[in-house]
């Protein structure tokens, strides 16, 4: 994607998001950000609640989003709040591309599969290095799946019993569905887990790797081509094309190094509880809010949410 130059003359919005369980956003926080934006040269309008004490917007003009974001983060740097600044026009997106492991679900599902053969700690170490970008993702995936040769298909399916959705996942996807957004789950994990997770949440499309199973057990191989960072980015572009929209009308969310290309390509690329290098490179991040923060970033109010567990 060719990045659109930032402008200071159009209407922008700075969004503050707290953990909705704590509802720790107060008027003092909003005032601190207002003063920080003004000190940076912005003309700031009055705030509007998206969800009282959980999320609020501060419209402004006169400075770029990057300048505003830096000023706002400095203003509340000691507070458990997520901050984002962006143009107000085109804020709501037509497409969402979401990672699964450690994003839509709380853990790494391949690591959970490995527990059945006593290799969870060993495989989790490889996973961790791959997600930090220290290892080639495709090679690391082949290595880990190879270590699971002989694992029973029933044990793979049993992993689903331990899969936990991240807070706000079902509400976020149901709300986006209600508003006509195309939602795709694009995972470096496996269809055996991704297909049910997508059904639980209401995703329209699933792109994930496929384990090769013979005689009821894993062979230790994964079907090619592997879904890695290039496939995630290609899926984002394909979905944008199918909807007839620019990549700026796409939202993406993920946590690992293999998610970074799609985070950088999307108009709203959100690093969610992300690895440090990913958070540092992404333009948007959620560290304190749950996955409903993906809705607040697009300007949805809590009374527009489709409430699901």
From TrEMBL:
Q: Name the EC number(s).
A: 3.1.3.3
User: What keywords appear on the UniProt entry?
Assistant: Amino-acid biosynthesis, Hydrolase, Magnesium, Metal-binding, Serine biosynthesis
One protein family per Pfam: HAD
Q: Identify the enzyme class.
A: hydrolase
Give the family per the record.
Belongs to the HAD-like hydrolase superfamily. SerB family.
Protein's name in the database: Phosphoserine phosphatase
| Chemical reaction(s) catalysed | O-phospho-D-serine + H2O = D-serine + phosphate; O-phospho-L-serine + H2O = L-serine + phosphate
Q: Which gene encodes it?
A: serB
Query: Pathway, per UniProt?
Result: Amino-acid biosynthesis; L-serine biosynthesis; L-serine from 3-phospho-D-glycerate: step 3/3
Protein origin, superkingdom: Bacteria
* UniProt xrefs under InterPro entries: HAD-like_SerB (IPR050582), HAD-like_sf (IPR036412), HAD_sf (IPR023214), PSP (IPR004469)
Q: Which cofactor does it need?
A: Mg(2+)
């Amino acid at each position: 994607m060719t990045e659109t130059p930032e402008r200071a003359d159009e209407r922008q919005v700075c969004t503050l998001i707290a953990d909705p369980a704590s509802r720790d956003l107060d008027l003092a926080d909003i005032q601190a950000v207002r003063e920080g934006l003004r000190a940076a040269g912005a003309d700031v309008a009055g705030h509007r609640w998206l969800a009282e004490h959980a999320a609020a917007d501060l419209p402004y003009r006169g400075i770029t989003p990057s300048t505003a974001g830096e000023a706002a983060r400095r203003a509340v740097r000691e507070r458990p709040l997520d901050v984002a600044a962006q143009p107000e026009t085109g804020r709501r997106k037509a497409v969402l591309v979401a990672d699964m492991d450690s994003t839509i679900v709380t853990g790494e599902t391949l690591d959970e599969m490995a527990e059945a053969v006593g290799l969870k700690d060993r495989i989790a170490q490889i996973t961790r290095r791959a997600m930090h970008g220290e290892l080639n993702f495709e090679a690391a995936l082949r290595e880990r799946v190879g270590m699971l040769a002989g694992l029973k298909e029933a044990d793979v399916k049993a992993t689903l019993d331990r899969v936990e959705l991240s807070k706000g996942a079902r509400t976020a996807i149901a709300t986006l569905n209600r508003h006509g957004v195309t939602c795709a789950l694009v995972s470096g994990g496996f269809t055996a887990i991704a297909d049910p997770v997508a059904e639980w949440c209401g995703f329209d499309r699933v792109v994930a790797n496929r384990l090769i199973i013979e005689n009821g057990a894993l062979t230790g191989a994964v079907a090619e081509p592997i879904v890695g960072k290039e496939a995630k980015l290609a899926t984002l572009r394909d979905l944008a094309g199918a909807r007839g929209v620019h990549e700026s009308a796409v939202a993406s969310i993920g946590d690992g190094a293999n998610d970074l290309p799609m985070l950088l390509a999307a108009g709203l690329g959100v690093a969610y509880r992300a690895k440090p290098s990913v958070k540092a490179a992404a333009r948007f991040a959620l560290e304190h809010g749950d996955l409903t923060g993906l809705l607040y970033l697009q300007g949805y109010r809590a009374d527009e949410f489709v409430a699901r567990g």
